[in-house]
Each structure stands twice: as C-alpha cells, then as structure tokens.
Amino acid sequence: MTASWLTDNHIGSKPEYVADLVKRSGRKPELLPELIPTGSIQGPLLDEPAERLGLKPGVPVACGIPDIHAAIVGSGAVKAYDTHMAVSTTAWLSAPVPFKRTDILHGMATLPGLSPDMNIVGNNIETGGAALSWLGSRSSRLPTDYWEAAAGSVPTVRRR
User: Fold this and answer.
1) Residue 106: how many CA atoms within 13 Å on its side-chain side?
2) How far is 67 from 99, CA to CA, in rounded Å?
3) Tens-digit pLDDT profile for residues 37-52
4) Alpha-carbon distance 81 to 60, whole Å?
5) Position 5 in a domain
6) 87, 129, 96, 88: which is closest to 115 by C-alpha?
7) Is the distance from CB of 11 to CB of 117 less than 8 angstroms?
8) CA-CA-CA-CA torsion sign (71, 131, 124, 65)
9) How many Cβ atoms sit within 10 Å of the Cβ of residue 128?
10) CATH code: domain of residue 146
C-alpha cells in the first residue's frame, strides 16, 4: 500500500493508514486491507490450499515483497547506498538509504525498505526497457563493438 500514498512512510513508522490521507482520498477505511510489514509471516498454510499445492499444512506463509525489493535482494545491492538498475519493460535505479525524501519534479521518492531502519530511493524510467528494445530493433546493422564502445564511454560514478 506504500504507493497508494495513504500510509506514513517515514523510517521507524508503524505500518498504518493516516486517517487524514484516507479521508482526502475518498476511500472507505473499512474496505482497505490490513497492513503488515513486507516479508513478515502472515500465518500458517491452511489445509485446503496445502492439499491443492501438494504441501504440508502449517507451513509458514510469508507476505510477498514488491518487485523493487525483490530486485534489490536479487542484485545484492542491500547495503546503504548500494545502487542497482533493473531493466524490463520499464527500468529503474534504486538504492537503500537511511533517510526519506521525495522529489516530485524528478520523479524520485523513497519507500519503506527491506528493514525498518532503511528506505529505498527509486527513480522509475517508465519505458526504459521498451526503449532499448525499440532501439535494438532499428539498429541491428550496427556492429556489437559499436555498442560495447558506447557503453564503455559512460563515466563511472564512485561513492565518496
């Protein structure tokens, strides 16, 4: 529900709705889902779903994590300021950070992170991967070494 902008996303805040934000949104509070922290255990696997899945009842069921969180884990960029770029249909840059900021003009915002003491700053590049696919389909006549040289010319940013 982080992206719904109905919760307090500051580091250390409890996962709960902000009544004023819910009221301003026009949503009915009683219809909003219960909030639980990302990655927490929701409860045991019930008998009927366990049977359908071929699993033992009682297996702990964890709350899933959003794609940006999963990408951070998958990239290994889990420490403060470690940055990764994910490219699919869209693309984004993100990094765990120990602060909260939002920059509407540049499309950047922080979201609750993988741990209560860390947020994730992200910048979504709406059609990043689709743009690369489009470029590739129109530039297949260019040799691979052209693209390697172009990628190699990008300056490296070093953390201070």
Assistant:
1) 11
2) 21
3) 777 888 999 999 999 9
4) 32
5) no
6) 96
7) yes
8) negative
9) 18
10) 3.30.420.40
Query: How confident is the model over 10-40, as pLDDT tens digits?
Result: 888 887 899 999 999 999 999 998 888 777 8
Structural domain includes residue 83: yes
DSSP bridge pairs for 96: 120
Domain count within the chain: 1
Q: Which domain holds residue 74?
A: 66-160
Is the distance from CB of 18 to CB of 7 less than 8 angstroms? Answer: yes
**96 contacts: CB under 8 Å, gap ≥ 6:** 72, 77, 78, 79, 80, 81, 82, 113, 114, 118, 119, 120
pLDDT at res. 157: 63
**Res 30: pLDDT:** 94
Nearest partner of 100 among 14, 6, 9, judged by Cα: 9
Inside any domain, residue 105: yes
Is 118 part of a structural domain of the chain?
A: yes
Query: pLDDT tens digits for 102-122?
Result: 887 877 888 888 888 899 998
